[in-house]
């Protein structure tokens, strides 16, 4: 698996979309890999809380939530920054709502979120993915503090929230993941000494992007 920057990954995804693999399908594939991974653990995930931001990383998390629910897992979704802002992510939120999966707003229902976490064996970090840089806002640090507390396993989708994918810089309050799932390609922070402790075990996964879509990196 190659190591690529965030901008290179965006180009790879654009190449894939132009070759016929839609962004919608890439999101579906990413979420499916996350759900499959959690269900393959020993013991398999029986209860999960998905923390979702408002970008496409949240969409990956919504897909995972839907597929975990279909597999018999008890699932709760937490919106950490209001409603999602991309079309694919909004559609996947509608799908999980139609299934009756509970959706909480963190800022308005913090106590309920904390209660849900007490009964969960795993949490999914689908807040920022590779879109994070700089420092976590105070409101988001409240989210990551709750997410990090309790000692349960955490699966970060593409990158732990609070870690910059390109530089490996770690914001105070960053998520400390048990596993980080690297979609399609590794990112620099997956390999940098300062960010590795926050990534935990790196799990590289294929999301269906054809090999020729990576040729820009040659």
TrEMBL record:
Top-level enzyme category:
isomerase
List of residues binding K(+) = 57, 125, 161
Q: Which residues bind (6S)-NADPHX?
A: 129-135, 158
Ranges for the YjeF N-terminal domain? 9-215
Kindly give the Pfam families that the UniProt entry links to this protein.
YjeF_N
EC code(s) of this entry:
5.1.99.6
**Cofactor remark:** Binds 1 potassium ion per subunit.
Catalytic activities: (6R)-NADHX = (6S)-NADHX; (6R)-NADPHX = (6S)-NADPHX
| UniProt keyword terms in alphabetical order | Isomerase, Metal-binding, NAD, NADP, Nucleotide-binding, Potassium
Drop me one GO molecular function for this one.
NAD(P)HX epimerase activity
Cofactor(s) this protein requires = K(+)
Q: Which InterPro entries match?
A: YjeF_N_dom, YjeF_N_dom_sf
Zinc-finger recorded as keyword:
no
Tree of life domain:
Bacteria
Q: Write out the function statement from the record.
A: Catalyzes the epimerization of the S- and R-forms of NAD(P)HX, a damaged form of NAD(P)H that is a result of enzymatic or heat-dependent hydration. This is a prerequisite for the S-specific NAD(P)H-hydrate dehydratase to allow the repair of both epimers of NAD(P)HX.
User: Which family does the UniProt entry place this protein in?
Assistant: Belongs to the NnrE/AIBP family.
Q: What is this protein called?
A: NAD(P)H-hydrate epimerase
Q: Which organism is it from?
A: Caproicibacterium argilliputei
């Amino acid at each position: 698996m190659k190591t690529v920057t965030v901008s290179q990954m965006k180009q790879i995804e654009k190449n894939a979309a132009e070759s016929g693999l839609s962004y919608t399908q890439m999101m579906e594939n990413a979420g499916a890999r996350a759900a499959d991974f959690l269900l393959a653990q020993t013991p398999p995930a029986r209860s999960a809380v998905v923390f979702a931001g408002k970008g496409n990383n949240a969409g990956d998390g919504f897909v995972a939530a839907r597929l975990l629910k279909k597999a018999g897992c008890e699932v709760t979704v937490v919106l950490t920054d209001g409603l999602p802002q991309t079309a694919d992510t909004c559609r996947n939120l509608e799908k999980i709502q139609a299934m009756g999966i509970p959706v909480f707003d963190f800022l308005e229902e913090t106590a309920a979120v904390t209660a849900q976490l007490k009964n969960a064996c795993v949490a999914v970090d689908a807040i920022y993915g590779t879109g994070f840089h700089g420092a976590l806002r105070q409101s988001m640090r409240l989210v990551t503090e709750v997410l990090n507390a309790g000692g349960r396993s955490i699966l970060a989708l593409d990158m732990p929230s609070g870690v910059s994918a390109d530089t490996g810089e770690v914001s105070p309050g960053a998520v400390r993941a048990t596993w980080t799932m690297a979609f399609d390609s590794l990112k620099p922070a997956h390999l940098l000494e300062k960010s590795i402790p926050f990534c935990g075990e790196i799990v590289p996964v294929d999301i269906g992007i054809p090999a020729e879509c990576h040729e820009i990196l040659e």
